[in-house]
Design a protein that fits this description.
single chain, mainly alpha, 436 residues, globular, Amino acid/polyamine transporter I, 17 helices
Length: 436
């Protein structure tokens, strides 16, 4: 693995992402469509205790994120998890990590693109017609590609706008939840009701906190990634934890029959502010999915760019637009592939990959920490995590606990994906000299 200073010199991407831009990528990776559907299920599993489930899950995910706080302070190049694993385990493992991450993200993107078109049907029923749906998928894909190609600043401004539209209704609901806190509500929620399923509730809710890793990939475009990445990670976790818990409390107070309520937050908006409230929350859902898509395309396209830069994919993927200074080829390819998957529906069988791939990536990166720490030991910008071994152990235990939810279909699909990745790696590296 080349040192981070050399990696920085070989990357033509312009360093212009601030800590706010990194936070936007992370918060949009974490707050997608999931939180709009979780409250009813969390209430069913944990009853009045459910707001505290969101706090407990923040504490559970914290060790994993703290591991990435250390890792992100060690490198300055684009790639994030791909670079961490390359430092520790070499090119073959890092290629598999990048390849698996890319496939899992593009299938998730296709699913969310389909969800976005379906959500638009709330305001425009014609969106559900087959040809209109296909046209919308194409137009949305082109728009997302265009925003990502014309510059990182344009993409971040757009992402910031969608984040504001998404967060304002959610913050309003959270504010309402804050007004509902009193001694009686705290005492009634202090213990799990009889018949609750704490384990299932934790497994359900903790996935509302994953997705932060997408914000780690574009480190090569951050003004000061070793300083700003850790700050953005911790800020994203704090905002999510507080917002989620208060939103759950608001949903409890507004919806007496929360357990049996479909589209719980939309219904909460209706109960609070009538039709306008429901419309605002639905608009927030659309903005949330759009922000998730925009951030996903921004980050994941940088993964294929990095693989092209490392000559593990054709050099075409690493080409940078002369005017806009973006990895335009990688962005266009990602957009076309996602559109094709969404239009055909052929991504559905791959959807089972996302959970296992994400957890495997977390475990690989945690395992890479000792080697990465030695690699960056003399870098004055590197910040070793106090008690790193204990934190890493906690993170591994959390990941192993989450793996109990993985189904056999996900394991088989992932093994097939890795086998295909091995073939691609051998083809891409045929005739090249061995490198560490």
């Amino acid at each position: 693995m080349v040192p981070s200073t050399q990696t920085e010199r070989t990357e033509p991407l312009r360093r212009q992402l601030s800590v706010l831009a990194l936070w936007l990528l992370m918060i949009n990776g974490m707050i997608g469509a999931g939180i709009f559907g979780v409250p009813a299920a969390a209430e069913r599993l944990a009853g009045d205790f459910s707001p505290w489930i969101f706090v407990l899950c923040a504490l559970l995910i914290a060790p994993i994120m703290l591991c990435f706080v250390e890792l992100s302070s060690a490198v300055r190049g684009t790639g994030g998890p791909l670079l961490y694993t390359q430092i520790a385990f070499g090119r073959m493992v890092s290629f598999q990590a990048g390849w698996a991450y890319y496939v899992a993200r593009v299938t998730s993107f296709a699913a969310n693109l389909s969800l976005l078109v379906a959500s638009l049907g709330y305001f425009w029923p014609a969106a559900n017609h087959a040809y209109v749906r296909l046209g919308l998928l194409f137009v949305l894909s082109v728009l997302l590609v265009w925003v990502n190609v014309v510059g990182a600043r344009t993409a971040m401004r757009s992402l910031g706008g969608f984040t504001v539209i998404k967060l304002l209704p959610l913050i309003a609901l959270a504010g309402y939840g804050l007004t509902q806190i009193d001694a009686s509500s705290l005492s009634s929620a202090a213990a799990l009701p009889a018949g609750s399923d704490l384990g299932a509730a934790l497994l359900l809710v903790i996935y509302a906190y994953v997705g932060f890793e997408s914000g780690l990939v574009p480190a090569g475009e951050s003004k000061n990634p070793q300083r700003d990445m850790p700050r953005a990670l911790l800020a994203a976790l704090a905002v999510c934890a507080l917002s989620y818990a208060l939103i759950q409390l608001a949903a409890q107070r507004l919806l007496p029959d929360l357990v049996n309520t479909e589209r719980a937050l939309v219904a909460a908006g209706q109960a609070w502010l009538g039709t306008w409230g429901a419309g605002l929350v639905m608009l927030a859902l659309i903005a949330s999915v759009t922000g998730n898509l925009l951030g996903s395309m921004f980050s994941t396209a940088r993964m294929s760019y990095r693989l092209g830069l490392e000559r593990q994919l054709p050099a075409w993927f690493a080409r940078v637009h002369e005017r806009f200074q973006t990895p335009a080829n990688s962005v266009v390819f990602y957009g076309l592939l996602a559109f094709a998957l969404a239009a055909s529906g052929s991504f559905v069988w791959l959807a089972v990959l996302s959970v296992l791939i994400r957890l495997a990536l977390y475990l690989l990166c945690i395992a890479a920490m000792p080697r990465v720490r030695r690699f960056a030991a003399e870098d004055p910008e590197f910040r070793a995590l106090p008690g790193a071994s204990f934190v890493a152990l906690l993170a591994v235990l959390v990941c192993l606990g989450l793996l109990t939810q993985v189904k056999l279909a996900s394991v088989l699909a992932s093994l097939g994906l890795l086998a295909a990745g091995t073939v691609l790696y051998l083809i891409a590296n045929r005739g090249q000299p061995a490198t560490p």
